[in-house]
TrEMBL record, chain A:
It comes from Glycomyces lechevalierae. It comes from the Bacteria. This is DUF6510 family protein.
Automatic annotation (TrEMBL), chain B:
PANTHER family: OXIDOREDUCTASE MOLYBDOPTERIN-BINDING DOMAIN-CONTAINING PROTEIN, PROTEIN-METHIONINE-SULFOXIDE REDUCTASE. This is DMSO/TMAO reductase YedYZ molybdopterin-dependent catalytic subunit. Residues 1-30 are annotated as: Disordered. It comes from Glycomyces lechevalierae. InterPro entries: OxRdtase_Mopterin-bd_dom (IPR000572), OxRdtase_Mopterin-bd_sf (IPR036374). It comes from the Bacteria. The lineage of its organism: Bacteria, Bacillati, Actinomycetota, Actinomycetes, Glycomycetales. Residues 35-179 form the Oxidoreductase molybdopterin-binding domain.
Length: 88, 200
């Protein structure tokens, strides 16, 4: 028996959180556990992409790479992003 | 105009043949950083090669300085679109560093003191194509440019020429690095404009 369904079911839950400004979300550093708003991360923009690091341990939390047609967002340095559901 | 001699025009034409598509020439040496510049003293510096078997070779600063030194001149091409011609360096060829290493690896990963990584096929770092350099334009390499030592792999985009280099590890399989995992091309040939991952 199939015990999983496909990623289309994520749309219902995630449309609520990927419309608001992500900089207001709370981010938890996967390295040291520091929790704070994305807007509080230390950002290095003079690089091939944009790199956001933890203010406490300097671990890379987010990477953003933009080509003329695509945007890559890497969140491997975070254990979570926490969003307030709009209207709640 | 009389000031433009045929020889001068010829020189410009040859220069433009050396600039890959989508790049512009700069006389500056722009500094790109994905994090704070680490301060690494030569007393604390080591360079390590780890083969796919786990065999390790380590050099400290004095041992490294005693290795045969080369002075490559290279055109460098940053994925952010600047290119710089005829840059001069001093350092040790990767061929020298691999001379005593027993390997049949197909891939390499370059590591740095600040946790950056970048990957390339093993065949791209041998046969006089790559160095660990400690001088730029006759001066010790400045920390902002990767000093005390950076990797130099000029035939691929310059993000592969990692600053503050600490180690090369050799592998049987490809292990994408810091930018290669995050959207940049796995190989990065400037003449083919391999800037980003393609496909969907």
């Amino acid at each position: 028996m199939n015990d999983h369904i496909d990623g289309n079911m994520l749309a219902g839950a995630l449309w609520q959180v990927f419309r608001p400004d992500i900089t207001a979300a709370q981010a938890r550093c996967a390295g040291c556990g520091m929790v704070g708003p994305v807007a509080g991360l230390t950002v290095y923009a003079d690089a091939p992409g944009t790199v956001a690091r933890c203010v406490r341990c300097e671990q890379v939390n987010l990477q953003l790479v933009q080509s003329p047609t695509d945007l890559w967002l890497s969140t491997t340095g975070l254990s979570f992003l926490r969003f307030r559901i709009p209207g709640q | 105009m009389s000031g433009l001699t045929p020889g001068f025009r010829g020189h410009r034409r040859i220069e433009s043949d050396r600039v890959p598509p989508g790049q512009y020439l700069t006389e500056d040496f722009p500094v790109l950083s994905a994090g704070p510049t680490p301060s690494i003293g030569t007393d604390d510096w080591t360079f390590t090669v780890v083969a796919e078997t786990g065999e390790r070779h380590v050099w400290d600063w004095r041992q490294f300085a005693a290795l045969p030194q080369e002075t490559p001149t290279a055109d460098i091409h940053c994925v952010t679109r600047w290119s710089k011609l005829d840059t001069t360096w001093k350092g040790v060829s990767i061929d020298t560093l691999l001379a005593e290493v027993d390997t049949t690896a197909d891939f390499a990963v370059v590591h740095t003191f600040d946790g950056y990584t970048t990957n390339m096929p093993f065949a791209d770092i041998t046969d006089g194509q790559a160095w660990v350099v400690t001088e730029y334009e006759g001066e010790p390499l400045a920390a902002e440019h990767g000093g005390p030592a950076r990797f130099l792999l000029p035939h691929l985009y310059f993000w592969k020429s990692a600053k503050w280099v600490s180690a090369i590890t050799l592998h049987d399989e490809d292990n994408p690095g810091f930018w290669e995992r995050a959207g940049y091309h796995d190989y990065g040939d400037p003449w083919l404009e391999q800037r980003y991952q393609s496909g969907w």
